């Protein structure tokens, strides 16, 4: 029995090690590739760490490409998308989680069903809408498009979180003369902090990494975000792809997301598990 237990533990840790390598290796390889020279990238046998790390690749990303502008665009677009999703999502979640009205469940499931459609299926309609509003090649075009997939998830997470907050807190606020918006702003939002962090962080990551809408609704670097900018990196000629710079840019845009997840990991877990346990 003890031998079987030991074998089980060994197999468990072996499986854990395999999963860990599977998850970490792509990021490790991106870092290694970003520090190689063009010759080392295609050298055989494969170099798992360059003899002379070429940090100049990271400098070239900003000097040979308008990557600083692309980073600014991504930061503003993802930030605006997150803020608007949290504002609209918190008010919608408050209504869906607390008030009774005709068609409440229909509205809730209709909102969730929007996220089930693939992006390509709504691309044509969104393009016509954005062109008719005069938003093409602007930040607001991307913000409007991104909210199609960030808002349903935000509403779902925050609605589940609001349903777990005791109604007595709101009733006490109503007795003191608070309005519904005051109850939401003063009483509920502070208690919804884990849910807000979870929904906001995941909305930010989705908006930060989105490619198809950014490629379709932008035409130059005035509004182009980093995923599209990296895909359009060019070398000295049209036949050359600067793989080292592409990898360096990929590392640059990935590190902030990793830092955000590590900083807010506790609130992220508590927000995702809200409503999972009853009683």
Automatic annotation (TrEMBL):
CDD domains assigned to the protein according to its UniProt record, in alphabetical order: TM_PBP2
Family annotation (SUPFAM superfamilies): MetI-like
- Which organism encodes this protein? Oceanithermus desulfurans NBRC 100063
The protein's UniProt keywords, in alphabetical order, are: Cell membrane, Membrane, Transmembrane, Transmembrane helix, Transport
Q: From which residue to which does any coiled coil extend?
A: none
User: Where in the cell does this protein reside?
Assistant: Cell membrane
PANTHER family with a match to the protein in the record: INNER MEMBRANE ABC TRANSPORTER PERMEASE PROTEIN YCJP, MALTOSE TRANSPORT SYSTEM PERMEASE-RELATED
List where the protein spans the membrane.
12-31, 76-96, 108-133, 139-162, 183-208, 243-264
The record describes its membrane topology as: Multi-pass membrane protein
From the Swiss-Prot or TrEMBL record, give the protein name.
Answer: ABC transporter permease
